[in-house]
Specification:
Shape: globular
Helix content: under 10%
Order of helices and strands: HHEEEEEEEEEE
Distance between the termini: 17 Å
Structural class: mainly beta
Strand content: 35-45%
Number of helices: 2
Strand order of the largest sheet: 3-2-1-4-10
Length: 148
């Protein structure tokens, strides 16, 4: 609901996993929104980066402003040089069972939430890494799916 207007109807899981637009994605949970355009099925262009995205996602008004939505808990941190979005660690916040990481990238800030005991060890502030996600967890979304 936004200013008395229903934006999306569905189960909590449907709305969280398949939001219809950027407003709904932000409303129902934390997310990263990277502006850009859908270049081809499964390929989202953000600056010089070609990022993987869900191929089944066919956002309404695909010619309008889009952002790639990826939830922080769906992103993996990999070694620098690995396939993915190059990033630099800006901040890490230990929250018990989870650590929230904040990264600087050429396409803007990106947040990652992962278990506090990562398999490869915690990256250091300033360290260069690569951020990875499965294409099905990256959705190209319009700013407003209800706009005419």
């Amino acid at each position: 609901m936004d200013h008395g207007r229903v934006r999306q109807v569905g189960t909590p899981q449907q709305v969280y996993e398949q939001p219809v637009d950027q407003f709904v994605a932000n409303f129902i949970g934390r997310c990263n929104l990277v502006p850009g355009r859908l270049e081809a099925p499964g390929a989202f262009r953000a600056g010089a980066q070609l990022l993987p995205c869900a191929t089944a996602a066919t956002p309404p008004r695909a010619s309008g402003e889009l952002a790639l939505m990826v939830r922080p808990d769906r992103i993996r941190i990999a070694e620098a040089g690995a396939p993915g979005l190059p990033a630099r660690v800006k901040l890490g916040t230990y929250l018990g069972g989870t650590t929230e990481w904040h990264f600087e990238t050429e396409v803007g800030p990106v947040s990652v939430a992962q278990p506090s005991v990562p398999a490869r060890g915690a990256p250091a502030i300033g360290e260069r890494v690569s951020l990875q996600w499965s294409a099905e967890h990256a959705l190209p979304l319009p700013a407003d799916a209800t706009a005419s």
